[in-house]
Specification:
This protein is of the alpha/beta class. Helix content is 42%, strand content 17%. The protein has 2 domains: 3-175 and 354-370, Glycogen Phosphorylase B (Rossmann fold, 3-Layer(aba) Sandwich), CATH 3.40.50; 178-352, Glycogen Phosphorylase B (Rossmann fold, 3-Layer(aba) Sandwich). The two termini are 12 Å apart.
């Protein structure tokens, strides 16, 4: 009989981040083993960028919560408890939900038939405050039975910061739809255009190292003036356009905004870059690899679990524009290395990150826990 699992998420803002991971999990989940139900803490179906019930193919309830101290909170907690009883939920899987909210909803769900609460960690806890850490330690001691982390680095962070026990933390990497990138030829110098393009997929913000990428581009252009740099992502456009303009490189560095067709964008690149200051297991790098691009990635979080330096890409120090620029110049000069890295990156993502197998692992963990 299928186990009934409630996936509890903060927002539904579309196909990115945790929402993308939930969507891919729902697409590959064996419904004969897991019967999913989704609760969204904030927002409404009307404000969502797409209809989550159609995308996820399961019941979805928006609680429309405000702040923790709002008058609606008690009403929402009661509503949640009734939902858990009505749908006979056995497991609540929190997905990137504030530790304070997790505590409140865990208490609300007691005596409603819940057999296990699951936590989730997909970053290295850069957002953790003393208050969040205290609530996290309480949850991991008294409430959370198991935690799913998407990288070894994330597992380590939840153990160190929130007192989770190592044996209770399972590492299951992100799911990725490799087939969406299958039609893109693996990069070769023979198939490349005359004008080299280096690009990045990620929101324009400090934590993603957008400023680092732009400064590295300025350095590279001093040696390779014909290279084009493209940034795909939304965010603080004015701030980074100002950096580009002040650096005198506006003719070579373009902010494209949000790009809806990521595979098509990646197909235009010779080198794909991640310049983040912190990460968990970045979807962007997995997509670069699936598209058969040569990757240069900052050595933060779980990036080193995807890119093995000098084997299927290059790892560089974070917050270091000269190091990033040197790696870009290296691959621009030595296209044989770029070809080798591109082929190896695609091979490793195809071998190790099959979506069906990873979704099966989620099922196994839930089933093992309820035995």
């Amino acid at each position: 009989m299928a186990k009934r699992v409630c996936f509890f998420i903060n927002y539904w803002r579309g196909r990115a981040g945790v929402e993308l991971q939930l969507l891919l999990l729902m697409q590959h989940l064996d419904r004969s083993r897991i019967e999913p139900f989704v609760v969204v803490l904030h927002g409404t179906a009307e404000t969502a960028l797409e209809n989550p019930q159609e995308s996820l193919r399961c019941p979805v309830v928006f609680l429309q919560a405000g702040g923790v101290r709002s008058f609606r909170t008690l009403k929402i907690l009661r509503q949640f408890r009734r939902l858990m009883k009505l749908h006979q939920i056995e497991i609540i899987q929190f997905l990137q939900v504030d530790n304070v909210w997790q505590t409140l909803f865990s208490f609300a769900a007691f005596r409603s038939g819940i057999k296990a609460f699951f936590g989730f960690r997909v970053n290295i806890g850069y957002w953790i405050t003393r208050k969040q850490a205290l609530f996290g330690k309480f949850l991991n001691r008294f409430v959370i039975k198991k935690i799913i982390a998407n990288a070894v680095a994330c597992k380590k962070s939840v153990i160190e910061q929130e007192g989770a026990k190592a044996e209770n933390v399972y590492v299951v990497p992100n799911l990725i739809e490799i087939r969406h990138f299958a039609d893109i030829p693996t990069w070769t110098s023979a198939g490349a255009s005359a004008v080299k393009r280096i690009g990045i997929v990620g929101n324009l913000k400090q934590i993603k190292g957008t400023d680092v990428f732009i400064e590295a581009a300025r350095i590279v252009l001093g040696k390779f003036p014909d290279v084009q740099f493209h940034l795909a992502g939304k965010g603080d456009f004015e701030r980074y356009q100002s950096q580009i303009d002040n650096s005198g490189i506006s003719g070579s560095v373009k902010l494209l905004g949000a790009v809806s067709d990521i595979p098509a964008f990646l197909a235009t690149l010779d080198i794909a870059v991640l310049s983040s200051r912190t990460e968990g297991l970045p979807n962007a790098v997995m997509e670069y690899m699936a598209a058969g691009r040569a990757c240069i990635v900052t050595n933060v979080g779980g990036c080193g679990e995807l890119i093995r330096n000098e084997q299927n890409g290059l790892l560089v120090a974070a917050d270091n524009p000269p190091a990033l620029a040197a790696a870009m110049c290296d691959l621009l000069e030595h296209t044989d290395r770029a070809e080798r890295f591109a082929a190896a990156a695609r091979s490793s993502i195809n071998e190790d990150y099959d979506a069906e197998n990873l979704a099966c692992r989620w099922c196994e963990i839930y089933e093992e826990t309820l035995r």
